[in-house]
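Entry:
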Amino acid sequence: EMTNKCSEIVQKLHLNNSLDQKSIKTLAKDYDNIGKALQAVGRTQEGLDIHQKALKIRLALYGENHPSIA
């Protein structure tokens, strides 16, 4: 059940990639939460892939020297 829910959320996020600037920060946080959930149910590689998407968003928003990148 949990893995199906995570998959649904990831699919919805892919469909909503045309977000305004304010929502992009939320998208990065959502990706992190989904990555954690996927890792918690043993889908480690998928979780890592989602975390990397969040990192790419944060890098684009803040640059490499921002505390949220660490």
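The CA atoms of residues 28 and 54 lie 4 Å apart.
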